Amino acid sequence: MIADSRLAPRRRLGGTAGILLTGFCSALAAGLLIVILGYVAIQGWGAINPAFVTQLPHPVGVPDGGVGNGIVGTIIIVAIAAVIAVPIGVLTGLYLAVYGRGLSAELIRFLAEVLSGVPSIAIGLFAYTICVKPFAHFSAFSASFAFAVLMLPLMIRTSEEAIRGVPTSIREGALALGLPDYGGVVHVVLPAARPLIVTGLLLAIARVTGETAPLLFTAFGSQFWELNPANPMAVLALQIFTYAISPYDDWHRQAWGGALLLILAVLVLNVGARLALGRHGKKS
Amino acid sequence: MQPAVVAAKDTVPDLVEIALSAQAVSAWYGSKLAIRDINLDFIRNSITALMGPSGCGKTTFLRCLNRIHESALDARTAGKVLLAGTNIYDADVNPVVTRRRIGMVFQRPNPFPTMSILENVTSGPRYTGMTNEPRELADLAEEALRRAALFDEVKDKLRDPALSLSGGQQQRLCIARALAVKPEVLLMDEPTSALDPLSTLKIEELMEHLAADFTVVIVTHNLQQAARVSHFTAFMLGDADRVGSVVEFAPTGEIFTHPKDSRTEDYITGRFG
Ligand SMILES: Nc1ncnc2c1ncn2[C@@H]1O[C@H](COP(=O)(O)OP(=O)(O)OP(=O)(O)O)[C@@H](O)[C@H]1O
Ligand SMILES: [Mg+2]
Prior knowledge:
The structure holds two protein chains of two kinds. By secondary structure, chain A is mainly alpha-helical. Chain A has helices at 2-45, 50-54, 68-98, 103-117, 120-132, 140-165, 168-176, 181-209, 236-244, 249-283. In chain A, helix 3 (68-98) packs antiparallel against helix 8 (181-209) and helix 9 (236-244) packs antiparallel against helix 10 (249-283). The longest helix of chain B has 14 residues, at 134-147. Chain B is built from eleven helices and ten strands. Chain B is of the alpha/beta class. Chain B starts with a helix and ends in a 5-residue tail after the last helix. The radius of gyration of chain B is 18 Å and the shape is globular. In chain B, helix 5 (134-147) crosses helix 7. The interface between A and B is medium-sized, with 22 and 30 residues. The complex binds adenosine-5'-triphosphate and magnesium ion. The site of magnesium ion has 3 residues of chain B, from helix 2.
């Protein structure tokens, strides 16, 4: 009691200071985010019009023109990356969730963690070395490969957590019915884990959608409507980079427009991830 | 303990057939021995109650009877469990197939959360390869739902999510799901302990009919429930220090009126447990 009465005022003081400090930092972070978003929105809004999202880039001096091919290229490259990363990530997550205690599982977990910290430009260089150099040809596919590697650690982690999160009672329910192991996994465990896996996928896509460094020497960029992943392809993030370092005001404007599009896309993906999570939360 | 088992057998006619027989069953969690040397026979088309204080190993023993105990990490079993004369622990017996013949209902309802009511009931027949034919699946589902006394309540909303049902309905759905693969034995681990009295009553009522087609083993904490639904009762003892084992096994009427072991008597008269 005595100690309490002596400590209480100081603790309250500490509490007040703590609230002020943490509150100030939170406000700073939130404010910074709002300023950045607002600035991009103001700068980019003027550039966004139907032509901007549907047309090919025009040469300097020719007005209008757009980033339509970059938008399509981004979608193609990210989609192929997801097609590669999802099965590998989910199956690895499943392995970790089921055999999670062995040495090999620990090793995989450690490697995935390290991989998630590797700079994207290094992964781009790796993709260049094995997917571009041997063919002497830049390609969208090599960019997808780099993106898939970037997505993989996140896919593995969220899949493992999602599968682990399926209650033992549900798993044993399948077992007790006499479903074979894979039957229980395919028909019961994975469907139950799906909302969280989808959330992880959306976040992984959001994570790579704005990546630029690995694209420099993989997708490379293109002035055309390129749909074949074996060829160099335009990507929105690359176009932003090219336009931003150019000396032309019109291109700067378009860079801001592209940046705004990317931010909106990432925003939509994040909201989608939350919605998938929300549905899951309500269900269970 | 052995004499009790013999005594119980003496009271049943020689004609009865033993559906499931546990012989010297022991089970471990890691290095911890949870139950030791349990011998019990389960008569075909009878209901046997497993009773005993919390932690005595009822769940563990039940989970040894369909080889689900071994699915937990580090869990191990010894002894034999004869299903229609064949040891389910023999090396050449497939545990997956065994579990189709020995169904299980858990303490808490565990419907498959992403499936509809109908899909839950048909999941067994469909994914164990019994049949994929929609007509047959529908028939199996209706039969199982009727046996579980749930059909009338859900027949107009079979496509609704299983989780939209009440807890008691979910538990009957789980019973229907287990019955749909047509097991020979049905293991039930405190199937009503998470339910309200009305749902409990419904499940006790349906159990009476189950014995006509199945051999039922039910774990229960509830003495009245054991007295009401079971033909035989096994009383188990054990706790954190003493390894779980069967103290007495006899027809339920005898256990409740003339328990042979003083510890059984203490338990059913409420002196402990
Ligand atoms: N997963 C586990 N790991 C380690 N020990 C366990 C595990 N499950 C149960 N045990 C131990 O095994 C013994 C028997 O447990 P069991 O769950 O079979 O008891 P029970 O009779 O079903 O109890 P209750 O009536 O509370 O359900 C207990 O001492 C318990 O602590
Ligand atoms: Mg139990």
